[in-house]
Amino acid sequence: MNERLKLEVLLAAIDKVTGPFKTIAKGSGETAKALKAARGELDALQAQGRQIDSFRKVSKDAAIAANMLKAAQDRVRGVKEEIAKVPVPTRDMARALKEAQQEAAGLKMRHNDLIARQQKLRSTLAGAGIDTKKLSEHSRELTRRQEEAAKAVAKHDAALKAQNKTLARMHAAKADYARSLAGAQRVRDMGMAAAGAGAAIGLPVAKATKDYATFEDAMLGVAKQVEGARDANGKLTATYYEMGRAIKEMSERIPMATTDIAAIVEAGAKMGIQGKQNLLIYAETTAVMAEAFELPVEQIGEQIGKISRLYKIPIQDVKALGDAINWLDDNAESNGGDIIEVMQRVAGAATMVGMSYKEAAALGSTFLTLGAKAEVAASATNAMIRELSVATLQGKRFQGGLEMLKLDDKALQFDMSKDATGTIIKVLEAIKQLPQEKQLEAATRLFGKEFGDDAAKLAQNIGEYRRQLELVNAERAKGSMEREAQARKESINARLQIAKNAMFNISSDLGEHLKPALAESLEKTLAIVQAIRAWAAENPGFAGGLMTAVKWLALGVTTIGALLLAVGGILVPIAAFKFGLAAVGISGSAAAAGMWAFLKPVLLVAGAAYAGWQAGKLLGAGIDGLLSKALGYQTTLGGALYDLVQFVSALPGKFVTAGGQMIDGLIAGIQQRWQALKEAVTGIAASTVGWLKDKLGIRSPSRVFAELGGFTMAGFEQGILHGQGGPLAALAKAAKGFAAAGAGVALSGAAMAMPTLDTRPPLGLGGGMMAGGPMIVQITINPSPGMDEQALARAVAAELQRVEAQRAARGRSRLADRD
Prior knowledge:
The chain is mainly α. It has helices at residues 3-85, 91-127, 135-225, 238-251, 258-270, 276-293, 297-310, 318-331, 336-352, 357-369, 374-389, 396-405, 409-418, 420-433, 436-460, 462-473, 480-489, 492-538, 540-583, 589-629, 636-672, 674-682, 686-696, 701-723, 725-741, 789-814.
């Protein structure tokens, strides 16, 4: 199952469990509303009951007050009758009458008040639909309704408390699930951080090695071209290392990569420039010019080298050449790259007549300023120098031009050999003095139709030519290129490049210190590889068997890796399953459905883990068998390989133990919560039980899982039986290879070289078989009932150990030569 599918299954299961929780949360609000309504109804009924009680009490009090009033009125009448019988009432009679009248008046007021209250209560009760003449019936109905309302309040209150408890359990389960996922994330983050830290720790070493290798490659060209960089034996000299240090120092002054500066030095040496100081001056000037004129360093280096050689410019004066070109570039309508191209093209003709590089630069720059392309400017310059230098050999057309200018061919030719620039200016001035309509004709007669117009244009702008001659010789031109380079160094890009150069230089310096250790390691690696090749050629059978064992070892490690992934992948489903268990009893059938959805990925991953374990056991046993064949030949490397195989073979058992502990913990958790589970499941409605039976097709869950387990184990059995042919065939082939290799194999940790097998019989006192020779061992194990695979393996190992001990004892008793 891929990660995406597992995630979808888990999310679907979680949604099935948490879906009812949302319903419960929504129902809690509705229950709270119902509880409030029930309580309101109960309060209203209780208020009506109190009103009925009040009416009854007022009615009773009114009746009592009426009786008391009648008695008081009777006493008043009696007193009056007594007074009427006597002529003069006594004082006591008068007081008694007054008291009786006051009592009757008070009772009258009380009776009236009670009657008024009674009428008011009667009206209130009538408004509530209660007839005071049928109070007994209403009282019984009211009592019944109050009891029902009280039950409804109790029911809703209990439901609300249960829902709140359910929601509290749900939140606790979700919080626990979130903590589990957060813990897994923290572990993954720690792993990623550790991996990142390891990569970060190793990065400086890798970068230092790479940077030094890059610089070393760049310096190989320098060592090849520079005289004195290697001695007679080909070893690098102090000159080489001094050049390397100087190049690095230069890269921290000039914003150009260190390797590019080394390439300039190599190019200069290839063109014949020699001497450390000369090469460094040339390299620095070229680098600065490349920056100033924005040209590729390879191009500018080659061109400046040719110009300095053609014009015979000493290396010490190359900076002056750069200053002159740069000053023209800054103060004329020409650019440095075109000026350099023109100078290179006209070098032959210019040097032939003794024209200096400054004069050639000024003439070419003037043509460029007047709009000519570099190629045309160079061709026009060459034509003017050539035609004027051989004036005496020219034909009628040329002679006609001289007549127009009133110049002598012999004098002109002589002057060109002494002062070519001055002579060209003199010819141009003569052309300019002609009438406008004659100037082009004269220039064309002298320099031909192809360049006559260029010469005429130059004559018309002879002032610009003179100005540019002044520019190349101006005092301010000196150091102009250095000043511009200094200004460029202030830019952020230049500062960044210099900083990068400094970091590259220090990194390559550190890499240089690592070189001896790296070289030694690579030499040892080469020796090991060569020894392995020689050993494999001498022992093809054993080599084939060993490679087969390595193949199975790789497959075993891959299987263990898959097992590790399976164990890691089961952690999240277990956390989700725990969440599902916590939900049982919260939402009934929906929770059960969610649990089943969780169980499916758990069972799937558990099945993969079990399959991996079985495969690991099979591979481990196979590899152990192969190496057991080779125990007589193993050395240090063989022992290490055997220990590795033993460790890998033991991993499945360790994972089984860990898996058992996890399952035991899971079972213990289920048992602890079993009572709550039973109570929750018992409360599920009959329809829910029927739904579960219908969906799962079961009568009891144990039968379903028993059936699933049976299918799973049957599948594993079929897979192992069908796939055993390949591993068994490989094991048999490897065993043949091991046996064919014979004895005396030595696997050295440094070279792993295999000596030629000595097939001679060993020296001994007797003719019997040596203790270390081949031996047939028959092992008989009578397994006891119920013995598992591990116990059987321990029994086989004990028997092998006993046989080996007997064999060694026999060897020692022979006193034979074991060498």
